[in-house]
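Teaching assistant's notes for section 4

Start the section by putting this record on the projector. Ask students to predict, before seeing the second block, whether Argininosuccinate synthase will look compact or extended. Collect guesses on the board.
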Amino acid sequence: MGRATKAVLAYSGGVDTSVCIPYMKKEWGVEEVITLAADLGQGDELEPIREKALTSGASESLVANLQEEFIRDYAFPAIRANALYENRYPLSTALARPLIAKKLVEVAAEYGADAVAHGCTGKGNDQVRFDVAIAGLNPDITVLAPAREWGMSREETIAYGETFGIPSPVKKSSPYSIDRNLLGRSIEAGPLEDPWNEPIEEDVFLMTEAIANTPNEAEYVEIGFEEGYPVSVNGEALAPVKLIETLNAITGRHGFGRIDMIENRLVGIKSREIYEAPALLTLILAHRDLESLTLTKDVTHYKRGIEETYSQLVYNGLWFSPLKAALDAFIEETQKRVTGTVRVKLFKGNAHIVGRKSTNTLYTDELSTYGSDDKFDHKAAEGFIYVWGLPNRVWSQQLRG
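Reveal the predicted structure now:
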């Protein structure tokens, strides 16, 4: 790891990132630390966080409202890709990392910093996502990761910070490790580290209601798409952030959007993860269904493999990579006709697609019907079946001969 004189630190206001400031200055000789707190809709009061960075020794403390960019340039492309890591996790946390990395590199260039820094440990995915994304944007800048190298326990980290005037947590900390943004929440650690333990405490969840508290009547929501992008809810055109906020409220009220899974981390560790992502999961569900109406069979089937690769790339920190750029071009081409409306029925933790329509529909009444309006040439089927099954027929004859 190279040393630096001026660093831009991704800052959350927690113990680790606060201690990173004096640690880099005292132990590594970094002369100046600029902090960057990213507002991704996590609901935190960012002014106290900004001030805490200054009292912890930062020369400047920046707050960047990245909500619009986060949804427009990261979440919506992932929805168009139907991105679900291991077919379950909609990448709500992973999608934020390349954006933060991009902003770190931009601020470093603006302030003439020769390094960027983060507070990730050596066990998680985020260290890889930050390091690889930063390298993809500026391979010449130094990346500092103090928490990955200092070897201090939680208690030792708190004690180290106190020597520099960084207060220890004033209340009993939650046993859970939680990350939140506009797209959802990820919850891990504590009792959840035992895969057998059910998350029975409802304070684990915030965005989704317990089934017992959900409405006793179903609710229908109509989601409009234009070229694969979500654009409206119940006929009302909404800007990206407002659309996510609206759907989070509607679908979360019905208890939809919880995930409990054993996840394969990039570093090879299996991790028990709880996620809440009500709007994001609903949008992927609706978007995939609209594609079934507007894409041809071969494109639909081929795109499923692309989606799996896309999800792995994002999860593994390769947002800024040549393969990701190539997949983006494929997805862009497929989305030109994915315009229409999907109707979703929400009830007791479930979201079911119950209707879809599009001016670009490939569903043809005259071919699909079994009624008197049927225009399909049934006599053509015999010749088609003969040609289609010919290789199997030849194989069978040879096998029996």
